[in-house]
Design goal:
The chain is an all-alpha fold. The chain is built from 11 helices and 2 strands; from the N terminus they run H-H-H-H-H-H-H-H-E-H-H-E-H.
Amino acid sequence: MDNLSISLGKRQLVDSIWKSAGIEGLGTTFPNTEKILENLPVQTKRDEVLFILNMKHAWEFLFENIEYPENLLCLREINKICMRDLSFDAGNIRRLPVTIGGTSWRPELPNEAAIIDELERISRNPDKLEAALDLFCFIARTQMFLDGNKRVAQLAANKILMRYDVGILSIPYDAIGTFKEELVRFYETGDSSKLKTFFKAQCLLLNPDVHRKKEQGA
């Protein structure tokens, strides 16, 4: 059976990477993103090129390993790919304290056993849309890696959505400011309800067949 969500993810690849760059505050344009992905000459910063190429490789990892469970080993590999040549500790669980821009809240050092338990709990949720959003929120707030947590969170959420053919999570470029506000509120309160409502209202491209069956209670 064709997987419409994987097809959508592949069609939206350039757009998704461009939006991810915007979330990270990189100034790359959509045309420049496209040129970098096509290996065409472009004047831009080294870190922007690395970001874009790493994200391409991370998406390719998702497509090639779509049936692999979203466990800690998987998340570590996604982070390793995303942060290659950008972070000295790419792919490793964070061992140092970090601060987060826009808030005085600070995450605790991650506990590997607790991470494994929570990932297993999320994976058991039969509602895969909720599981994907819960996984995003867990990765983002746990800050399990030294850098690249939002990237890993969005990629991992999309992996679940594509694996079960639910759709794609794509934060609109003009809603990045709202996303960051809701994310900071979530960091500070631990209440994910408003962030998840934002995702559902503005950021989901759903497979209409799956959505219709859910509404019909199938």
